[in-house]
Every structure is written in structure tokens, then in C-alpha cells.
Amino acid sequence: MKDFYKEKKVLIPGGGGFLGGFLKKSLEAMEAKVIIPRQENGWDLRKLENVQRLYTSDKFDMVINCAAFQGGIGFHQGKQANLYYDNLIMGTHLLQEAQRTGIPKFINVIAGCAYPGYGDKEELREEDFWNGPVHESIFSYGYSRKITAVQGLALKKQYGYNSVHLVLANMYGPGEHFEPSQSKALAGLVKKFYEAKKAKIPFVEIWGTGKPVRDWLYASDGAEGILRAGAFYDEIEPLNIASGIGISVTDLALLIKKLVGYEGELKYNTEKPDGAMKKIFSIRKMQKKLEWLPTTTLEEGLGKTIEWFDQNYEYAIAH
Length: 319
Fold this sequence. Notes:
CATH architecture of the domain at 2-173 and 216-245 and 279-297: 3-Layer(aba) Sandwich
CATH superfamily of the domain at 2-173 and 216-245 and 279-297: NAD(P)-binding Rossmann-like Domain
Order of helices and strands: HEHEHEHHEHEEHEEHEEHEEHHH
CATH class of the domain at 2-173 and 216-245 and 279-297: Alpha Beta
Helix content: 40-55%
Number of strands: 12
CATH topology of the domain at 2-173 and 216-245 and 279-297: Rossmann fold
Strand order of the largest sheet: 2-1-3-4-5-9
């Protein structure tokens, strides 16, 4: 894989975020040139003229699209229209202009919430991607990301354009969002247990019933899967990048509790939403196509995440 990326120019919209840091580190280790357009530097990718200016600023070999406006379930409340519009317009401009300007390959990172949200299957296979509505708790973000796969198929049929659509499990790891308004369940629990231990709070509140099951993927493994797909996968059909292992919110909370060393109780707030009840992703196609599986166990990844959070607490809770 190193030979594939050596000296390639890789553009990563949204690369200033959590996942982008892992991608950048891996690509630079393989001697690729990484370009990350940041909004604070004038690259508002909701504006077509900015995307056009970006794509003509250099000759890129690949785009890895991580651009997204999103957060946990609570983050979506009151922002549904903004989430839909911003994600739809960014995704549309970035993919359309990549084809129009002749960038050879476009890697589209899609959140797992784009899958149907009401099934009871043991695992979500790629052929299930179109088989039902996304969950209502994240519908505007889920559909806006899902529609980019439709656009990719249209560009493939009309122009033969090579876009790859990767559906990722929930990612976690050092450097992710711990700021409460934007954090997801795992990061939110790490923060709650850590602070409860420090302040000697007798219980930690768990949103919902604790029954939903999720598939958690350590971010360096996620980056590895994305880059392997960039090198070895050229099919238009979506491809899962995941651990293939599910854990309930309660069991995740108990594991974090143990690793933090917290001795209080769990208290469930069932007024808060659960979201979809089960999301475990099939990894059979991923293993076959990429000849790869993630290597980081949940306990190992959580240990690294908690250690980073402890060492970077003030920064973490503000980002």
C-alpha cells in the first residue's frame, strides 16, 4: 500500500477533524502529500465557487471526503434542516466537481446511520443499505449522506467515474469530540465517568435504556480501512468499514467504568432517546475485498482514549 500512495497528492475535505488526523499521519508516513482545506482559511465547501477553486488549485490524485456537519443524537435536535442542507450541499459539490475536473478517484466516507434504522438483523450487510428508512432520530443527516451514494452511482453510469462509498461504524479514539453538544455516546460516557470519579459523584446518568447495541471502530483502524479501500477497492457498491463486534450501551458503560476506576452507580434516563436498537456491521465483504481486519480491541482502544483524555482534559472538553 505504501507504494500506491508514495508521492500522490491526496486532498482531504474535512481533514481538520478527528478522523482526518489519523489519515494525515498514515498518508505522510507513506510519503504522500496531504492537502487539508480548512474553513478558517476561507474554504467554506458549501459554496460551489470554493470547491471549484480548490479543485483547480493543484492536480490531485485522490479526494478522501471527510467533510461533515454532525454529532451525537442530542446534537441533532433543533438542527435538522441545517444538518440536511449543509451535508447535502457539501457532498454534492465535492463529488460533482471531482468528476468534472478529472480527479481520478473519490473516496466518500459515509456514517453508519445512513443504514436502515429499524431492522432486527444480527448484522447490517451492504445489500441491506437500501432496504428501509434511516432512524428518525438522525434522519436529516442520515439521508443527506446516503444520497451521495446515489450521486456516485449516477456519475458512474453516465461518465464511468470512479467513486467509492465507505460506510463506517462509530469511530472513537484520542482527539475525538468530547465537548457535550457534539460528542457521541462513547466519548460522552468517558467524560461522564472521568468527571464523576474526580468529583466523587455517586452516580452516572446513562441516556436511554442502555439496551442499544453498537459497533465501535478505533480511529486508526478506520483510517487504515479507508486507505486500503483507496488503494484496492474500485466498485460503486458501498463497503462497510467496521469491527463487526457489537456491544450494548450498558456493557460499554461498565467497561469504561472499570477502566476509569469509577465506583459509583449507573442511573438510566429513559426520557432520553435510544436511537436505533442494533447496529452491527457485516465485515465479510471488507475482509474479502481488502484482505484486512481491524486489529485494535475495544478495551485496548478505550484505554488509549481515556489516557489521552486524562492528559488533554482542558483541550478535549472544549473541542
